Amino acid sequence: MTTDHRWTTPITADLLRGVVDLETTTRGLLPHRLTARARRQIPDDQLAMAEAQPSGVRLVFRTRATTIELDTLPTKRVYQGFPPPADGVYDLLIDGRLAAQASVPGGNVRTVTDMFTQTSVLAEGPAGTARFAGLPAGEKDVEIWLPHTEITELIALRTDAPVEQSPPGRRGTWLHHGSSISHGSNAGHPSAIWPALAAAAGGVELVNLGFGGSALLDPFTARAMRDIPADLISVKIGINIVNSDAMRLRAFTPAVHGFLDTIREGHPSTPLLVVSAILCPVQEDTPGPLAPDLDGGRLRFKATGDPAERSAGRLTLTIIRDELAKIVQQRATDDPNLHYLDGRDLYGEADYAEFPLPDEVHPDGAGHRRIAENFARLAFGDGGPFATKTR
């Protein structure tokens, strides 16, 4: 930093939003999106990595600073045999608008050696700095959205003017759980993942429990959601159940009931929206598991199950959507604040024709925007289940 006047502000929970738990490390603080109790029950590296990637987590404060530096230690994920992805992006918003972006090179690198088991090895690296300079003068509300695809240890916050905690807002909190699409897969930057865009449109504070590959109706996730304060709740169910071939119809139905029962223990009357999967042609009527397809040198995914086994309980997206609609209809007779949204209303045939899924599963940035626009209209708009609880 070029100025002689610098302020170092301790990073504490008061400066963070969208975080569920903070772990103290030898360097600083590591944001988590599951509770410590839930993390002790995580069965695999896939979810352990996903929940520690701070999708939707941001620093929020007021300042007159024109230069801001954030020291972090990123942990980046690469897949063996594939080129490394670009460095994660830090979005700086001023008064709710994207004003600057930065990245932190280097850091730890976790190489996934098996895409099916998510087995990985870690190579340690140095911390770095996300630097934002030339910001407009004057008092302003600043948000720094952390990279949604990089585990990020927070080390130090430096500015050329004092930092103050933002006053508590009056906006409601939206707690959302979903798969890699909710996590933000293939979105270009963290404030452009569809839940972040929808939250901005709905005027709510986001707590995002979108976990890549891990929306599997895990009881510990339901218990975490039960205990997280929220004014609005949504759960997006389907794609990971199918593409992991995790269960059959006989197990799926009571698992959904149990997941919803647990959430209702802590949120008995909170608006609760069950959302099925968006259109995914490779899994609509073909069971999983999903497998990578490298034909032509481009990563795509294909379903490998046998459609003939649907009658024996093998799950597809079509089957899951029908079952979710039945479950919600049944439960809603005693739970008027429970609602269902077909994911194809967020991204369906027309959207697929306009914005195809680049890898056959995940939308690109334009697809994320379309999903967010439709969710904002259907959930937060007039007559939607979240319409009267956004503020």
The gross shape turns out to be: globular
Largest sheet: 6 strands, mixed
Radius of gyration: 21 Å
End-to-end C-alpha gap: 39 Å
Mean pLDDT: 94
Structural class: alpha+beta
Amount of beta strand: 25-35%
How many strands in all?
21
| Number of separate helices | 10
Helix share, percent: 10-25%
| Low-confidence parts | none
Please describe what this structure looks like.
It is a single chain. The strands form 5 sheets. Strands 1, 6, 9, 10, 11 and 13 form a 6-stranded mixed β-sheet that branches. This protein has helices at residues 36-39, 45-52, 180-183, 194-202, 219-227, 239-243, 249-266, 317-332, 349-354, 365-380, and strands at residues 7-9, 16-17, 21-24, 29-32, 58-63, 68-79, 90-94, 97-102, 108-112, 120-123, 128-132, 140-145, 151-159, 163-165, 173-178, 205-210, 232-237, 272-276, 290-293, 300-303, 338-341. The protein is built from 10 helices and 21 strands. 24% of the residues lie in helices and 28% in strands. The protein is α+β, with helices and mostly antiparallel strands and 391 residues long.
Helix and strand arrangement:
Elements: E1 7-9, E2 16-17, E3 21-24, E4 29-32, H1 36-39, H2 45-52, E5 58-63, E6 68-79, E7 90-94, E8 97-102, E9 108-112, E10 120-123, E11 128-132, E12 140-145, E13 151-159, E14 163-165, E15 173-178, H3 180-183, H4 194-202, E16 205-210, H5 219-227, E17 232-237, H6 239-243, H7 249-266, E18 272-276, E19 290-293, E20 300-303, H8 317-332, E21 338-341, H9 349-354, H10 365-380
Parallel strand pairs: 6-9, 15-16, 15-17, 17-18, 18-21
Antiparallel strand pairs: 1-13, 2-5, 3-4, 5-12, 5-14, 6-11, 6-13, 7-8, 7-12, 9-10, 19-20
Helix pairs in contact: 4-10, 5-7, 7-8
